[in-house]
Amino acid sequence: MIEKIIEVSKIAGEVIREGYRSGFGIEFKTNESNLVTEIDKKAEAKIIDYIHKNFPGHSVLAEESGSEKNNSEFLWVIDPIDGTTNFAHGLPIFSVSIGVQRVGQTVAGVVYDVMRDVAYAAELGNGAFANERKMLVSNTERLERSLLVTGFPYHVSENPNLVKQRFVHMLDHSRGIRRLGSAAIDFAYVADGIFDGFWEVSLHPWDLCAGKLLVEEAGGKVTNFRGESISIYSEEILASNGLIHTKLCDELMSVK
Ligand code: IPD
Ligand code: CA
Ligand code: CA
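A: This is the predicted complex of the input protein with calcium ion.
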């Protein structure tokens, strides 16, 4: 199955690269910060079409077209472009994110970094890979030496879940913080030992389904801010190399 997920991610990637070069229409979703382009929709349609042909009967949960529930053990959780704002502005950091769950457990996931042509892939119990290379999380043990990444939801102006205070607090408790604009790539970079930790609030299942498995299969940990295990529907996400996890929980939870 993982080969098929990589294949369909690359098919979508081709559509996205072509759109990136030739231009596309843009619409607003909930507000003027929350965009969707015609390429998001086109790439998603390609992916769903591929699933219908290769895995007929499987259920689908996709960002732009919603849920297609069938009587199947399998659920495909799809973000056709994770990083649409970057894509729309011409910043080449965005991905295709596809996770597959079997009876509620994620069994495979791919984050395809479209412009770098790197497929970050994991299967449950089989490790995580960047193309052919096996990935491992970092071995940073001290928060003061950690490079962290985060993101902000589209309704950040409402300051959900103390998102602004938490960001400011973590600036004082890490070596640095980045904001790349693709949660799926944030997870992939934790899995690959580039970032030591990643936190965000108000993500959607399609932002994290594949990425969570990447981090876990690379030896890291993904929980909520209290350190409790989470599903793909969780409001809070904290992913790390495991070594700094408790310290990250303590700092994030100390913000009131
Ligand atoms: C967004 C990206 C971003 C994160 C937002 C997501 P989208 O997904 O993952 O990094 O901060 O919360 O909504 O809208 O580009 O698919
Ligand atoms: Ca997304
Ligand atoms: Ca998206």
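The pocket of calcium ion (ligand 3) is lined by residues 40, 63, 79, 81-82, 84 (CB under 6 Å). The chain has a mean pLDDT of 97.
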